[in-house]
Write a structure and sequence with these properties.
By secondary structure, this protein is an alpha/beta fold. The protein is 34% helix and 25% strand. The termini are far apart.
C-alpha cells in the first residue's frame, strides 16, 4: 500500500514539474516573440538627424556617419536604429574616430520625435606640429610629418610645411623619425599646460610672444619656447613653471638685460635663473 502511495506522489510531482516547465517555455516564447516584434516596429526606428556645432566639417559628412551607425545590424537581424538598441556612446566613439577635427561629440535621442541629435565641438587650432627634419623632406610619397595641432595637443589634420614664422609651430626632436597619425596626442597634458602658461605669462608680463616650441632638442624632456625676439626660455619636465616664471620676471626687472643680445634664459632650476648672451 505504501509503495502505491509513494508512486502516486512521485507521478504527481513529475506532473507538476512538467506543467511548470511547459508554463516557463510558453512564457519565454511569448516574451521572446514580443521582444522580436517590438524590435521590428517601424514606430521605434530613429529617422531624423540633427547636427549642431560643426564649423569646418560638413554637416553631410557627420550625417553620413550617423546613417551608417543606424544601418548597422545587431545579431545580423535587428537595426541599430531601433530606439531600444541604439547606443549613444557607440555613435560618439564612431564620430570621434572618423573626424579627428572633432574634440567632443554628445549624442542624444528623442523617443517622441524619433530624432538623433549630435552636438560636436571642433578642436581649436594651436599651430603646426612638425617632426624635426620635415623641412628637408620634399618627397610627397613619404608619410606626412607636419600636422595642424589643437590646443589640447592632438593632431587633427595634415598641414603644409610652413617655413619662417608665419604660424605658431611645435617642432619635435623626440621621435627619431617615427610618424604619428591623425588623432594622436603628441604633447601630453602636463607639458602642454606648462607651455601654454608660459606663453600667456610672457605675453602679459614682457609683451613677448612665443613663435615656436621645440621639444627634446637637448634632452628628451627639454622644452624651448622661442620668442619673436629671437631668444628662448628653457625648461623641462620637472620645472614648476609658476614660481620659475616669477623668478624670470624678477631677473628682468632687477637686471639690465639687452634682449637683442640674449640667446636663452634657463629656468629649470629652483631659485635660480641662468641666461646667456649670443
Amino acid at each position: 500500500m505504501k509503495s502505491v502511495l509513494r508512486q502516486h506522489k512521485i507521478q504527481k510531482r513529475h506532473a507538476r514539474i512538467r506543467n511548470v516547465t511547459m508554463w516557463i517555455m510558453f512564457c519565454s516564447l511569448l516574451l521572446g516573440g514580443g521582444a522580436v516584434a517590438l524590435l521590428m516596429v517601424p514606430q521605434l526606428q530613429l529617422e531624423h538627424i540633427t547636427v549642431l556645432g560643426q564649423e569646418t566639417i560638413s554637416m553631410g559628412d557627420v550625417e553620413r556617419v550617423v546613417h551608417a551607425e543606424l544601418a548597422d545590424r545587431v545579431l545580423g537581424l535587428f537595426s541599430r536604429g531601433n530606439m531600444l538598441l541604439f547606443r549613444t556612446s557607440m555613435l560618439e566613439a564612431r564620430i570621434l574616430k572618423e573626424f579627428p577635427t572633432i574634440a567632443s561629440a554628445e549624442v542624444s535621442r528623442s523617443f517622441t520625435s524619433r530624432d538623433v541629435q549630435v552636438a560636436v565641438r571642433e578642436r581649436t587650432l594651436w599651430g603646426v606640429y612638425c617632426m624635426s627634419g620635415a623641412e628637408e623632406t620634399s618627397d610627397e610619397t613619404t608619410p606626412a610629418q607636419c600636422y595642424y595641432i589643437g590646443t589640447d595637443g592632438v593632431l587633427f589634420e595634415i598641414s603644409p610645411r610652413f617655413t619662417g614664422s608665419v604660424i605658431f609651430r611645435v617642432t619635435d626632436y623626440r621621435q627619431g623619425g617615427t610618424a604619428y597619425t591623425l588623432g594622436s596626442r603628441v604633447v601630453e597634458d602636463e607639458s602642454r599646460e606648462k607651455i601654454q602658461y608660459m606663453e600667456k605669462f610672457l605675453t602679459d608680463k614682457l609683451s613677448v610672444s612665443v613663435r615656436e616650441v621645440v621639444l627634446g632638442r637637448t634632452y628628451n624632456d627639454t622644452i624651448e619656447l622661442v620668442t619673436n625676439e629671437g631668444w628662448y626660455v628653457l625648461l623641462d619636465g620637472a620645472t614648476d613653471v609658476k614660481p620659475r616664471a616669477n623668478d624670470l620676471l624678477l631677473v628682468f626687472e632687477k637686471h639690465t638685460i639687452d634682449r637683442t643680445r640674449l640667446e636663452y634664459v634657463d629656468i629649470r632650476f629652483e631659485g635660480k635663473v641662468f641666461y646667456k648672451n649670443k
